[in-house]
């Protein structure tokens, strides 16, 4: 895990590989995420793709969370590999 953290840090701060990196650009973020997944050996050449990338906003409401959880459960039941971004939820569970 430390290796991957150092790799991500290096990718973001490597001005040679990404001289004009714009973390507000979806194209730049997509390329960065692909590079990180490739380095972590999460993508395999010669195999049918089964990676689902779920990427969302920084906070979601309860209805969005419950929907995303149902979708994620169904993807998992189909034995797909799921890669998610961190999500902070604003509501409190009862």
From TrEMBL:
Domain of life assignment: Bacteria
Gene3D superfamilies reported for this sequence: 3.40.50.450
GO terms for cellular component: cytosol
InterPro entries with a match to the protein in the record: LOG_family_nucleotidases
This protein's name: Uncharacterized protein
């Amino acid at each position: 895990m430390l290796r991957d953290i150092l790799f991500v840090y290096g990718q973001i701060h490597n001005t040679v590989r990404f001289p004009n990196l714009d973390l507000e650009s979806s194209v730049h973020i997509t390329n960065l995420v692909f590079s990180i997944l490739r380095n972590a050996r999460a993508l395999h050449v010669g195999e049918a793709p089964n990676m689902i990338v779920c990427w969302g906003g920084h906070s979601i409401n309860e209805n969005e969370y419950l929907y995303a959880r149902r979708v994620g459960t169904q993807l998992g039941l189909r034995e797909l590999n799921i890669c998610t971004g961190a999500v902070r939820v604003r509501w409190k569970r009862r």
